[in-house]
């Protein structure tokens, strides 16, 4: 019985040591705080398109907030690059007006992605016949 316990002891120490290193690497020594999420609903990125419905060639403007400070935000209409905007120091932007393109006939989803932060937001546009 003593031999069995002595063989398991190095394995237990190894597993415990690995767990301690894993916890230290993940937490960087800071205690876990469930309320300190990087993106909370209050500051989650969001975009709006104005108007949110129209025809091909109508002018639209996309505004947004909650992105990284002073970063470029790229826009995709479905999988098609649409344009980009630059955020201010607070992560907000007001884009220039752009015409709705032909690919709006195939998808209504517009995605904005922060090029440094990777933060994303989506909105929809309804194409009128």
What does this structure look like?
This protein is α+β, with helices and mostly antiparallel strands. It has a domain at 46-127: Immunoglobulin-like. It has one helix and ten strands, in the order αββββββββββ. The longest helix has 26 residues, at 2-27. Mean pLDDT is 78; it is low at 13-37.
Q: Any idea what the radius of gyration is?
A: 24 Å
Q: Could you report the average pLDDT, rounded to the nearest whole number?
A: 78
What fraction, in percent, of the residue positions are helical?
10-25%
- The CATH architecture classification of the domain at 46-127 is Sandwich
Specify the number of helices. 1
* Computed structural class: alpha+beta
CATH topology of the domain at 46-127: Immunoglobulin-like
N-to-C terminal Cα separation, in Å? 82 Å
Q: What is the CATH homologous superfamily assignment of the domain at 46-127?
A: Neocarzinostatin-like
CATH class annotation of the domain at 46-127: Mainly Beta
Order of helices and strands: HEEEEEEEEEE
Spans of at least 5 consecutive residues whose pLDDT stays below 50 are 13-37
Shape: globular
Major β-sheet annotation: 4 strands, antiparallel
What is the number of E strands?
10
How much beta, percentage-wise? 25-35%
């Amino acid at each position: 019985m003593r031999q069995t316990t002595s063989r398991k002891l190095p394995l237990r120490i190894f597993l415990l040591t690995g767990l301690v290193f894993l916890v230290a690497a993940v937490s960087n020594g800071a205690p876990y705080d469930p309320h300190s999420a990087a993106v909370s609903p209050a500051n989650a990125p969001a975009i709006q398109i104005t108007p949110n419905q129209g025809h091909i060639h109508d002018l639209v403007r996309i505004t947004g907030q909650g992105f990284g400070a002073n970063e470029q935000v790229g826009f995709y209409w479905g999988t098609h690059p649409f344009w980009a905007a630059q955020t201010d120091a607070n992560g907000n932007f007001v884009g220039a007006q752009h015409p709705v393109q032909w690919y709006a006939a195939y998808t209504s989803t517009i995605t904005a992605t922060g090029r440094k932060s990777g933060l994303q937001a989506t909105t929809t546009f309804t194409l009128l016949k």
